[in-house]
Amino acid sequence: MPKLKTHRGVAKRVKKTATGRIKRSRAFHSHLLSSKSPKRKRALSQTAMVHHANEKAIKKLVPYL
After folding, report:
1. What is the pLDDT of residue 65?
2. Collapsing DSSP states into helix, strand and coil, what is residue 38?
3. DSSP for 10-59?
4. Fewer CB within 10 A of the end CB, N or C, for the chain?
5. Could you tell me which residues are beta bridge partners of residue 23?
6. Segment 4-47, tens digit of pLDDT
7. Distance, CA of 47 to CA of 54 (rounded, Å)
8. Phi then psi for 46, rounded to 5 degrees?
9. Nearest C-alpha neighbor of 19 from the set 44, 52, 53
């Protein structure tokens, strides 16, 4: 098998946890923040796990993560 290429766009956006799950950041936290509540902004600044339905696809894009 030849070496697989890593999808660099995805590699910059996700990290792997110690248990093997994939961690991501949340969207909608970069601009237009004045209309969002402080509670919502705090929630958006925290990381989230990639949904298990999408994990296989992400792992294929970033094979050496």
Report:
1. 86
2. helix
3. HHTTEEE-TTS-EEEE-SS-SS--TTS-HHHHHHHHSEEEPPHHHHHHHH
4. N
5. 15, 49
6. 999 999 999 999 999 999 999 999 999 999 999 999 999 999 99
7. 16
8. -85, 155
9. 52
